[in-house]
Amino acid sequence: MSDFTNDHMILVIFGAAVATYLTRIAGYVLLSVVSDIPPRAEAALNAIPAAVLTTLVAPAFYAGGWEGKLAIAAALLTGLRFKSPLPMIAVGWSVVMVCRYFIIG
Amino acid sequence: MRESSEFSSGLRSGIVPALSAAPFGMLFGAVSVTQGQSVFETALMSLTIFAGASQLVGVELFGQRVAPWLIIASIVAVNFRHVLYSAALTPVIAHFSLPKKLIAFFLMTDPQFAEALKRHEEEERVTFSWYLGAGLVLYVLWNIMTLIGATLGGFIKNPEALGLDILLPIYFLSLVMGFRKRPNYLPIVAASALGSILAYATVGSPWHVSIGALAGILLAALLPPGKTKEAAQ
């Protein structure tokens, strides 16, 4: 069971693909069954994108090195000025590279 | 003519997120090959799963020879947010036919979802041509970058030396900031941040994604409805 072959690998990939597709249609299927959305449920639905995406940022900030924390903070400040992600990425990446090559050495 | 201009507008909407995701496609390809998967298996994952963070979790677990059901469960845990996304996307694409909806949900990724909601919020109707344009840019570039990464895999010894590790969180941060005019934005983001960090430090990855998100979503349901910063609709 633990030592799987190439054939198993392909099966696991297809299994993961089917499971992932099911997560992608599950919310739609649920809403088709439940037609009337109460206001609190709607507030919850509205909160989903920011709530989920935050969980992809905060632990990276928490677990990353100090140069990572500095880069994310710098990107946050950049984001207050510019709407597009590219300036944020450019600033954050530059901070990390400068720290790693000139300060950590 | 209208259809094709919608499609090219979709291509334009997709290009920035696709380029931001490109390094991760490469990173995934490289990590997957260095964990012992073939180029074919690596490409198959990007073609059929098409969900970057979960693919990286998957190859990490393949490398550790974890039981297959646990690998699939972990991939589902990372992708659990799709359940929430598809619920939120449903009213936005309500006018698509069923086959078009099924295609749209296959192409639904973090950036695709965010771009579609942004377009919907700007009171522009999300057409299927626009959605397909944006989705295909992401899908095609993701798969090309996977192949490049898988081919070059052996050469990237240390992604941190290239600063690749910081790109993904900053990209997601930019998406989070895009929602800052939503009702109760700050408390929701604070609850999710705190919840995900606590879960990360205790239960561990990948559960911090679902647990942190639930913290923010529950708070949103409990709080009195806040005002949107734009004029009331």
Automatic annotation (TrEMBL), chain A:
InterPro entries: Brnchd-chn_aa_trnsp_AzlD
Domain of life: Bacteria
A Pfam family annotated for this UniProt entry: AzlD
Protein name: AzlD family protein
Keywords noted in UniProt: Membrane, Transmembrane, Transmembrane helix
Sequence intervals crossing the membrane: 12-31, 43-64, 84-103
Automatic annotation (TrEMBL), chain B:
Ranges that cross the membrane: 12-31, 69-98, 128-155, 161-178, 185-201, 207-224
A Pfam match: AzlC
Highest taxon in the source lineage: Bacteria
The keyword Transport is assigned to this record: yes
Lipid bilayer topology: Multi-pass membrane protein
Keywords in alphabetical order: Cell membrane, Membrane, Transmembrane, Transmembrane helix, Transport
Keyword Cell membrane among record annotations: yes
GO annotation (BP), single: L-valine transmembrane transport
Gene Ontology CC annotation, any one: plasma membrane
Main localization of the protein described in the UniProt heading: membrane
Record's subcellular location: Cell membrane
Recorded family membership: Belongs to the AzlC family.
Protein name: AzlC family ABC transporter permease
UniProt organism field: Martelella lutilitoris
